[in-house]
Specification:
By secondary structure, this protein is mainly alpha-helical. The protein contains 22 helices and no strands. The protein has helices at 3-20, 24-43, 52-61, 68-74, 83-94, 99-121, 125-137, 145-157, 166-177, 190-193, 199-214, 220-225, 234-245, 257-275, 277-283, 287-303, 308-318, 320-328, 336-353, 355-358, 373-378, 385-398. The longest helix is centred in the first third of the chain and has 23 residues, at 99-121.
Length: 404
């Protein structure tokens, strides 16, 4: 049994205990232990995941911080979009750190932020972390670390929405955008997320969104192309062109078993949340904002699937709503057996969602076997990371998931 599976079982066990009520001291120890397990997995990963080789190239490209202002002035970084990430790794480089230090520092920040703000938004912290582990951790913490930083900074920004502090929200989101360009899409969402929408309006829009998905109505590409003349950054222009034109990026979401599962999940969730909306709003201060984030999540899934890669990247920000809202559900039930049943369903959902990672799959060969930096260096073990990454690319090219 490998570490990914052990981790999900461990978190699931304490999620069940949290739902039925455990001593607070035990709960705190459980959260701390989960934090260190995830830090061990993500912070000390070694040539594991999909993007580590790319990040190695970026590390080689970036110069130490002591020359960064001259380098920016000279135009050395003129095509680098994620300037916050550039400054961060150039600082690490100036201090003598390498890529492994970068990964560890990122994991330390993102997991600390995750635990801290989950504790702020929900009483069921462990359940929320379980759902983060299942839906986001493998794609971002284990691979797309720049967007991982941006997603967790957005988790911080959410607190400013019910507090009605748009300037602080904007500044926080702009900081997130310096680590990953996709966070720019979050700027206008403040004015969507700080409203209260009637259940009737939500229901009508949900039906419209489902129709857009099933009838494959195109609108997003034409809308985004209106802004192309305003783009002055060469690299951003290249990204915009690729993500809206290349076949593997600008293709519709297939109506496969995964899509059908998501449609069923969103339908059941929207019905359940609408029916219990009043009670949830009374119990939880942040319910309304996460409900609105969930509505954005539904919109992204159903209405932007014509540009699948952009849709998937943006959706990671709104997946945060799933982990918080699902963690609320057990509080609607008073009997212990009911809470156990509800939490068990959530656990099965989490395991099913993360199945390609927690159980070995050819599509996730870049993640298996897990390689830990300390183990591989202390025992001088030979890494298979590069060969598995090449095999991963071949498999995904063959399936048309990435371009050769």
């Amino acid at each position: 049994m490998h570490i990914y599976l052990l981790a999900i079982f461990y978190i699931s066990f304490f999620s069940l205990l949290e739902a039925i009520g455990i001593d607070n001291r035990v709960r705190v120890y459980a959260i701390i232990s989960i934090f260190f397990i995830l830090l061990y997995i993500a912070g000390l990963k070694y040539e594991t995941g999909v993007d580590w080789y790319l990040y190695g190239q970026i590390m080689d490209h970036v110069k130490p911080i002591n020359t960064i202002f001259e380098d920016i002035k000279s135009g050395y970084y003129k095509n680098d979009l994620d300037i916050g990430y550039i400054v961060f790794i150039s600082t690490i480089k100036a201090l003598g750190g390498d890529l492994q230090i970068v990964f560890f520092c990122i994991s330390l920040f993102t997991l600390t932020t995750l635990i801290k703000y989950c504790s702020r938004y929900t009483p069921n912290v462990i359940t929320a972390v379980l759902l983060y582990y299942a839906t986001i951790f493998f794609v971002l913490d284990m691979s797309g670390v720049r967007q991982c930083i941006a997603v967790n900074i957005f988790l911080i920004a959410i607190k400013y929405i019910p507090e009605k502090k748009p300037l602080k929200y904007l500044i926080t989101v702009l900081i997130a955008a310096t680590f990953h360009w996709s966070a720019f899409f979050l700027i206008p969402t403040y004015f969507i997320l700080n409203k209260t929408y009637s259940s009737k309006s939500v229901s009508i829009f949900f039906v419209i969104e489902v129709c857009i998905f099933f009838f494959k109505i195109k609108w997003l590409k034409s809308f985004l192309e209106l802004f192309f003349p305003l783009i002055t950054n060469k690299k951003l222009m290249e990204k915009a062109f690729v993500y809206t034109s290349a076949v593997t990026y600008a293709s519709f979401r297939d109506l496969n078993i995964v899509a059908i599962g998501n449609i069923l999940f969103y339908t059941l969730m929207i019905i359940f949340l609408i029916r219990n909306r009043t009670v949830l709003q009374m119990k939880f201060k942040y319910f309304n904002v996460f409900f609105n984030i969930f509505l954005c999540n539904i919109f992204i899934f159903f209405c932007t699937s014509e540009l699948l890669d952009i849709s998937s990247r943006i959706q990671y920000y709104f997946l945060l709503s799933n982990m918080i809202l699902l963690s609320y559900i057990s509080f609607l039930f008073k009997r212990r057996i009911e809470r156990i049943a509800v939490t068990s369903v959530i656990i099965f959902y989490a395991i099913g969602y993360s199945k390609p990672y927690v159980f070995e799959s050819s599509f996730t060969i870049a993640y298996h076997p897990y390689q830990n930096y300390l183990v591989y260096k202390l025992f001088d073990k030979k890494s298979t990371g590069r060969s598995r990454l090449e095999l991963h690319q071949k498999i995904h090219v063959k399936e048309g998931l990435i371009q050769d």
